Amino acid sequence: MNEELYNLIERLANLLRHETRQTGLAMGLQPVQQEALYYLSICNRYSDTLLAVTDYLGLTKGTVSQTLKVLETKGLIEKVKDSEDKRITHLKVTEAGRTFLTQTCPPQQFSEVACKLSAQAQGTLQEALTEMLHQYQQRSGRNGFGVCRQCKYNQSSQGRFVCGLTKESLSVQDTKQICREFTQ
Ligand code: SF4
C-alpha cells in the first residue's frame, strides 16, 4: 500500500471540497444541496429520481427530500413526470441550476491548477484514477453510478448507442452521464 498516494488523494479531496463548499455557500447553497444539484447535472434519465439521489449521496430519504425542496424553491431544479410512466418523477436541472454550476463546479482555483498540467499528464492521471475508482467501487460493493459508455450493457454500432438493459436508444450525451444501473 502506497501511503503517500493515500495522503495525496486525501489532501486534494479536502482542498477541493473546501473550495467547492466556500464558493457554493457564498452563492447561497449548503454543501449537501450543491452535491445533489451537481449529481443531477451529471446523471442520466434512469438516475434522476429521489431514490437515486438518496442512494448516491448515502443519506436518508427525509434529508434528501428537504434538500431537493430547497433546490426546487430556488428554481435550480424542476420536477417532470415521466412521459410513459406517470408514477416516476424526474428531477431536472433548470437553466438557473446550470448557471449556478458553471460558476461553482469545478471551482476556479482547482481548474487553474489542473490546467497547468500538460494534456499528457492530465490524460495519464485521468486513466489511473478511473481504474482506481472502478476497482474501489467493485470492492466496496458500490459499483453503480459509473459512466454509461463503460457499462457492459452499452451497445454501440456505427455511431449509434443502445442500452442493452432497457433496449432504449442512447444519445452521445447520454453515454457520458452516470447511471445507477451501471454494471461493469
Ligand atoms: S448502458 Fe448501462 S449505464 Fe448506460 S443506461 Fe444502460 S444500464 Fe445505464
Question: Overall mean pLDDT score?
Answer: 93
CATH superfamily annotation of the domain at 3-116 = Winged helix-like DNA-binding domain superfamily/Winged helix DNA-binding domain
Q: What string, H for helix and E for strand, traces the elements in order?
A: HHHHEEHHHEEEEHE
Q: In terms of quaternary structure, what is this?
A: single chain
Q: What is the tally of helical segments?
A: 8
User: What's the CATH first level of the domain at 3-116?
Assistant: Mainly Alpha
Helix content: 40-55%
CATH topology of the domain at 3-116: Arc Repressor Mutant, subunit A
Distance between the termini: 25 Å
Give a quick account of the main beta sheet: strands, pairing sense, barrel closure. Answer: 3 strands, antiparallel
**Largest sheet: spatial strand order:** 4-5-6
> What is Rg?
18 Å
Question: Which regions have little confidence, pLDDT < 50, spanning 5+ residues?
Answer: none
Number of strands: 7
* CATH architecture classification name of the domain at 3-116: Orthogonal Bundle
Measured by DSSP, the beta-strand proportion falls in 5-15%
Question: What hetero molecules are in the model?
Answer: iron/sulfur cluster
Taken from the alpha-carbon principal axes, the silhouette is globular
Helix and strand content put the structural class at alpha+beta
